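To close the chapter, one final illustration. This time we ask the reader to focus less on the individual chains and more on the assembly as a whole: which components sit near each other, and how the overall shape emerges from the parts.
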Amino acid sequence: MRLREVFRYELTHRLRSPSTWIYALFLFGVAFLMIHIQADGDGLVQINAPEQVALGSLIAGMVGLLVSAGLFGDAAVRDLEAGMDPLLFTSPLRKIEYLGGRFLAALTVNAVILIAVPLGLVAASHMPYLEAAAFGPFRPIAYVQGYLLFLLPNVVLGGTVLFTIAVLARQVIPVYLGAISIFIGYLFGVSILSQTDHAMLALLGDPIGASSLNAMTQYWAEAERNTRLVGFPPNLVINRLFWLTVAAGAFAGLLRRFRFAHPDVGGGRGRPRRAEMEAPMVRRDRVAIPRVAGTFSARTTARQALSVARNAIAEVVPTRVFAVVLLGCVGLTMLFGWDVGSSVFDTSTWPVTVLVIETVLNTPITPIFYLLTTVYAGELVWKERDVGVAEIADAAPVRGGIVLLGRFLALVVILAMIHGAIMVSGMLIQALQGYYRFEVGLYLRILLGLHLIDGVLLAALAMTIHVIVNQKYLGHLIALMALLHPVIVGESGLVRHHLLLYGTDPGWTYSDMNGFGGFIGPYIWFKLYWAAWALLLAVLATLFLVRGHQPGVRRRLTQARARFAGPVARVAGVAAVLIVALGSAIFYNTNVLNAHVAPDAQGGPQAEYERRYKQFEHTPQPAIAAADLRIEIYPDEPAADLTGSYRLVNRTDTAIDSVHVSFVDPNVEARSIAFDRSASPVLEDRETSYRIYALERPLEPGESLRLRFDVAFRPRGFPNSAIQTDVVGNGARFNRSWLPVVGYQRAFELADDEARSRFGLGPREALPNPAEVGAGRYRLDRLDADLVDVSMVIGTSADQTAITPGVLRRSWTENGRRYFHYETDTPISFGGTVFSAGYAVREDRWNDVALSVYHHPAHPWTLDATIRSMKASLEYFTEQFGPYRERQLRVVEFPRYGGFGVAHPHTIAFSEDYFLSRVRDGEIDQAFYGTAHEVAHQWWGGQVRGATARGHGLLTESLANYSAMMVTEKTFGPEVGRRVYDFQMNRYLGGRASQSREAPLLEVEDQPYLAYRKGAIALYTLQERIGEERVNGALRRYLEKFGGGGGLHPTSLDLYAELRAVTPDTLHPLLTDLFETITLWDVRATRAEAAPTGTGAYRLTLDVVGRKVRADSVGNETEVPMDELVEIGVFAPGEGAALGEPLHLQRHRIRSGVQTITVTVPRPPGRAGVDPYRRLIDRDWGNNMLEVRE
Amino acid sequence: MHLVIRGLFKTYPNGTRAVNGVSLDIPRGMFGLLGPNGAGKSTLMRIIATLQDPDEGSIHLGDLDVVRQKHEVRRTLGYLPQSFGFHPKVRAERLLDHFAVLKGIAEPGVRRDVVESLLRQTNLWDVRGQKIGTFSGGMRQRFGVAVALLGNPTLIIVDEPTAGLDPAERVRFLNLLGEIGEDSVVILSTHIVEDVEELCSRVAIIDGGEILLEAEPSRAIEELRGRIWRRTVGRDELPALERELAVISTRMLAGRTIVHVHAEALPGAGFEPVEPDLKDVYFSVMAGLHGRRAPAPVARAAS
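The assembled structure is written out below.
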């Protein structure tokens, strides 16, 4: 009865409050925007596919925790804030009636306004301007499921936790901290759970239901995602029920703990507070009050600002809440920073300072900064009013702007302390991991420099909003959205210019090699510009600062108008002038000196290139046979000059009367182009940089001519984004794309279909089918060169080494610069890649091949592994495939602006991050594996270069990955080999679920998850079934046929023919499954029972279900009969999740459907099942093995 | 220094007329603003204290326009609002020092002296290191006075300062106010008549946002002399008495009811004349028998 009254009272209050409906609007907006961000993606999955709706509900619900924090926090704290608690607490209300009523009312309201989420999702899907093709049919049930499975249970759980915190803490800040910890706990939970093998833990461990959803849908292909409803699967329902029980338990605990009492008495934890004291006013002495009037000078003003700041800090910092915040920051930093930079193969790297900072700042901690800034900005704006001192302070002779400045300073100090906490814990991570190069200066520069500056700008925005909104909870919400708007808007791609997104900048990357490089200048320009805006915001806040009682919008406006005078107006003027001046300067850099291309104009010149000159694609053109280059690098400018000549040979059988020359990189300037025979320009297209020269005397077949050129790279000012990293202070790296290109090149066409249609181009012409091409003349990449003799002189600053593929003939110093002359022994694939940096070199030899690793002096960790891998790889590949044809092999480090490894002829380049990896127990040696992969490319892609056709990736990446797997397994043993295999398998299955359309391996196009992952799986599986010698023998024959530089370029079918030739007929179906089709297996064990035979042995009965399907490119599956040999394994009991010693491991014939297999094993079995090592491509692997029952 | 208020109006968005045409001249010294709860005292106080803008009218403190030159007025203003709190975790001396800076006492040495003497004056010196959260109501009130007195204010506004104080506290508090109020304009708003009676050289009675009487307390009392009559009555006689006579106040004394009646001549048997006090003035004014709400004396004479 009384419960109903409490409930009714709270409900009425909530429903009448405008903030409730603003919250609903907010949720609607979040859901609505989410669709827009998704619609911007390239997704093949329909945006309103049931699985996406479920996911969207889940994520919007997480954001909705902020609303819950407002609703539940208010319901719990309002009585205390209003001072109504003594009246309520002394009424005959029982705890359950009071708390229950409040809680249920908040929950009801929250549940109702959460309906805004599905409404927002539905509304956005029906917006006419969104591409209708991206959406499937409207399925109401999908939204109901999202609401019932995720939104509702999560708000019950989240609301209970937040309400409990609010009631016990009697404050609002802990509630928001609670909301963020739920969010972070969830993210952390997901990452932990994804690694656990413990089924129960994985099922129940995630309070939000995201892992359950993900586990269910992770390997669904496109077609499944679009049609399959999430339904109410038992796992998910159990998870939901479990967490609802937890919520009920938490509430019961709250009821037990809560006391109707004054906080000083009922507080419980901590030391008892002092009771009120009394100092009676007994006049003992008469003291004259000094007649000191205030003096008001600039000095006083400064002191006032500082005093306000000091006072505000004294109120916030010594509190228990703030201690929790700092500890939380330390904890989260440790948590998220611990596995710094887990890169490929989940190998850890050394906790190098920049990686620690980046890992921490780029992880889920980021929302904390936004939230803390918002909450503390609100706290500082509201504190005086909350404690009731506002009227006194407002009547003090302090200008509004000074009060704000003081509080702002306090906020900056608070943010700085938080950053300090992160810094300390970052060093703690390093020390605990045995890494002692702390780089305190770098910590200070990034955390208390760059990142704090960002924070300070956001703080100004948050405070201004709190002042203007003048309603605490609503202020939190609006401020948070305002802080996030650059992220959200930036993500949506609507606005890209950093002059328009508050507080943003072109971005920066710190590199051990190159420091902050060229990023810091533009950063400062943009930050100064935004600081001017922040000043303007400060003026705005000053104008609207509430002093005393000034209700009503109109009165505040009048007051603001009155305040806009004197110093305030002058500051506004200064800010406006600065904004215009700095903005213009930046605009001059980004839009005049550099081209700022609107997002939808991106790719315009490429489209023009194709539209105008595609007609010349098959016009006979000479090929580059030799290149003679002189390259001057000026790292400090930065700038580069590239001069030289090509020897062009007519390798066609007709005479050529005109030469087409173009430059594909708009950032270089062609100063001159000349031929060694008279030629006249007939076309000079500046826009696409395409030129046609008519030769006075045609170039006859076999005849050659020389093309001379002079190209300059002179970056001017700075752009809005993508600051150039080609030529930098230390670590220049650029390639042929700056040099002239001969003839029309397909490789430079616009690839993205969506962009193509924007410029009125049809879908890109598909790569030819390998069957149509045959082993012929087509080459991938550029058609103007196959193998080229290169002679290159590179000049750079005196303290740097320049490197390019070729043999170093000579190096000398001239005019204070160093020069290097490289020349090739035999013609190479012409990539023109040049490196220049202050390198240290590790040298070694393998037979008569000189091995060298050019590395940053501070990066010594992976050198041994790299050298070891080079040797092992050369050894294995030479023995198995064929000889290495060069006299040297190099590895070169370049700055981490690009994070990859790439193989050039006898020169392998890795970005910095590769040089930071280290191997811990149970991890794969990334430096070793990566090097082996790139060394393998010296054969696959180097010696044999495939034709331009589908299936090309099989000839390069698949073979390189297979080769690397074999070397790794030979070196580290089968256990590690298995780990690499599992890694490839997970990447393949994950890739096919999330990425572009799938194709059979033989026709793979631009799909790395196929070329790298599935290709390696297929070749490795084949090697297991028919033997390493047979597969490698096939590869050897393939290499002999297409290797020797004879101009023959194979297709995937040529390789496949060799593999078929060594595979027995009985296994040809397997080849079909792996290479010609997309085949998936689903095998599982459904029964495993053992009975002793009486002789000490055990007779094991195993029920096995087999199923095999073929998928089409979007994942529609058709079942096909299964009939093949699959491993059956019986294992002794092992430790934990690990399998014990195998007692029986043999291939048995498994057909579609259920079959019973009996085997006898000599000892008591622990686990048994089918395909224990996941040799088959099986998405649902968890059900392969069973515990054996007696 | 002299505070002049002319034609002040303030209406809240919900229609409440909190200040309805107030004009006052407030000289140096203690000025009492007397009125029941909800009379508009606090609104008037806040307007004078620069914390609220009037809809109409002007206030001048000497040459300063209080409505427009807020900042200048604040430099010379001491304000103790009706209800306030302090950051509970901050120590008294530290907080007073903070307010001293806010009030423009920038020199550290001077500030230390001022803070010390004010803490001594308000008898808080011994507890200067305590957190304000541990203070009793009276101590907090005294601390508020200390804050209000910082910076040698020429205009001091104290709004209901004695509410919630025990009698002894109240007396001491008023003494303190009396001492400091000699050289400034001190406006004391209260609904407790004794506060004003004991301290103020001038008083205004306000109700419904209007000033009903503005006078020196002694003169106001003098005007009532011979018009206030007292009688002790039984409880059952009271309603009849109230119907027939202008009863301005009743109070219980030892179980009997004592009635004060306003009348030009002896109202009837059993009444005796009393020497009026400020309370009688207040109640007469509130009852509409005296001051601006009263019918014009001429009309009354005619009846």
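Residues 419 and 451 of chain A are 8 Å apart (CA to CA). The longest strand of chain A covers residues 623-634. With these observations in hand, you are ready for the problems at the end of the chapter.
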